[in-house]
Amino acid sequence: MSKQKIVTVASLAILWxxxxxxxxxxxxxxxxxxxxxHFLIGGAPNRTVVTGRDPxxxxxxxxHFNTITxxxxxxxxxxxxxxxxxxWEPADSFVAFGEKNRMSVIGHCLVWHAQTPRWVFxxxxxxxxxxxALLARMKDHIMAVVGRYKGRIKGWDxxxxxxxxxxxxxxxxxxxxxxxxxxxxxxxFIECAFRWAHEADPDAELYYNDYNLETSKAKCDGAxxxxxxxxxxxxxxxxxxxxxxxxxxHPSVEGLEYAITSLAAAGVKVMVTELDIRTQARGYRGxxxxxxxxxxxxxxxxxxAETQKKLADKYAEIFSVLLAHKKDxxxxxxxxxxxxxxxIGGSPLLFDRNGQPKxxxxxxxxxxxxx
Length: 371
Ligand code: 9MR
What we know:
alpha/beta; TIM Barrel; eight-stranded parallel barrel; 9 strands; globular; binds ligand 9MR; xylan degradation; carbohydrate metabolism; GH10_dom
């Protein structure tokens, strides 16, 4: 190529880059300003965002959000992969990113049945660990992780997804090995986790977090039973996270209102912790990753105008409910940042695969302005 041609190509590239729309939308209002009188608004960046490898996503987070939750890097498997090894670096980057941007930083999550290495539940010979040894392991983990970020992480999802759809405790290794005991000890492993989280950072808020609380009244009642049990024993629990992995036809207004009002009436803060709306009409609807396959994350119709309209309408409906109950809601966090990196595929968030605000973004802003 001649020197002149190289110069021309380079100038065109510079012009193109200059003209490329900035991720997050240059001229649109920042969500954190739109919702500043209502609740915190956030997203769940992953490692590529907080380490600067995904500048598109970072631009969205910095412009629009005042709270962040780590999508994966604080989970047991990632932060504590082997008994004697903690992997602090990614979590440190996440917390530092939040602090640099003056955001409320949320820790997700301490005790969960998924993304927990097998060794946690095994003794040295590979058999099932005893109750006491598992409790000791849980305590060490919580003291180390919560202790490291004491005063820097505002609140923790202490226990995640401990309930089945009917509101009873899920038969996870935590429950099976630690046991339930008498009525007073009914939530033994949950209680222990909250006690140690409180001991490690007395100022941190402590949350129970689960999915389908807005679609299953029985499951929501199960979460309320945990809150009431804690309150009756004088144990600290600050909030319940309604994950809200929704779809184009769920949750219903009634289901979401039931969850918000009944949890608030039990005396805890309510937060929406993992908001997205799957655009795929078929396949499994819940938030259990083990049941989500490529076949149901692909969505050829995701970008279609009709899909985007339905998505915008559903977001508008959900936000009109959240805004109507804003006195009980402290935070709304989207699960991810933009469609390109969403765990569920399709087009579930407010920003498209290029980081541009979608019709759903404007629908949410309009819902706030109509309040
Ligand atoms: O979005 C997360 C995905 O990247 C992980 O592979 C998955 C592993 O379990 O977890 C996803 O996040 C889940 C969250 O931690 C808890 N609620 C359900 C979320 C979606 O599965």
